[in-house]
Design a protein that fits this description.
alpha/beta
């Protein structure tokens, strides 16, 4: 079955699998392969809302990264539209990594305090040991957490205080985007993050077959039409990042 073959590849290829690879392997068109992969990514979503990371004696790292192309690789009309402010020119993603546990991501408009702190409180249990870099947006979180800060202008590790675990996840995300997918529409980015989170969160104590079975168990009830996928109709699965619906080369 072509669907099961594609899902096996998507669940178990560490850097993802492109629609062109599915096109060549299964003998279908690239457009059909792309649509197939997007529908399968929907089944890989982690329904984590309502639960929180961390807790007593647990450590959670919080960090942000930027997703988007380099100015020198852009067409002139896109370079001319750049503002010079990285929060506006790229997509901002905030990550929450529980050490020895799971990772979550959220796309935000900017790295401002009013964007990031509500998300931290939404995803991380109060009283958790919270580890961040020296971004000013995190100032004040010590009211709710045992907040430790590592200033990357001075050092990267101070005992147990570092953000290297979430940085490792960012490297996997960008290797997937740069090496396999090449370019991703900003309003589809969260789907690719869901894909990488699924593999990362289920990498331990689970072999390839078990990971595939878990993905298959989440297929039922997840339906996505092409018009919903492309934003031509209202869909609960379609989200925008506020960065514009243009292709971003990586």
């Amino acid at each position: 079955d072509k669907w099961m073959t594609a899902f096996w590849m998507l669940c178990n290829c560490k850097n993802g699998v492109s629609s062109m690879e599915i096109h060549r392997t299964l003998g279908i068109t690239q457009k059909s392969a792309w649509f197939m992969l997007q529908r399968l990514r929907l089944a890989m979503q982690d329904d984590f809302y309502g639960s929180k990371l961390g807790g007593k004696d647990r450590e959670v790292e919080v960090d942000e990264t930027f997703i988007g192309g380099k100015a020198r690789n852009m067409h002139k009309h896109r370079r001319d539209a750049l503002t010079g402010r990285i929060d506006d020119d790229k997509t901002v993603v905030v990550g929450f990594m529980e050490r020895g546990g799971r990772v979550r991501t959220e796309i935000v408009q900017q790295r401002r305090k009013f964007n990031t702190q509500p998300l931290v409180r939404e995803h991380v249990e109060a009283g958790t040991a919270l580890l961040t870099d020296a971004l000013k947006s995190y100032i004040g979180l010590d009211k709710y957490y045992e907040h430790e800060v590592i200033d990357h202008a001075v050092e990267y590790v101070r005992g147990k205080v570092h953000t290297n675990t979430i940085e490792n996840f960012w490297s996997l995300v960008k290797r997937q985007l740069h090496g396999t997918y090449i370019s991703v529409e900003p309003f589809h980015l969260y789907r690719y993050l869901d894909e990488q989170m699924f593999r990362f969160n289920n990498r331990k104590n689970m072999n390839d077959g078990q990971r595939f079975e878990l993905g298959m168990s989440q297929v039922v009830g997840n339906r996505l039409t092409y018009s919903e996928l492309t934003g031509k109709s209202d869909s609960p699965h379609h989200e925008t990042t506020g960065t514009g619906e243009t292709e971003v080369p990586f």
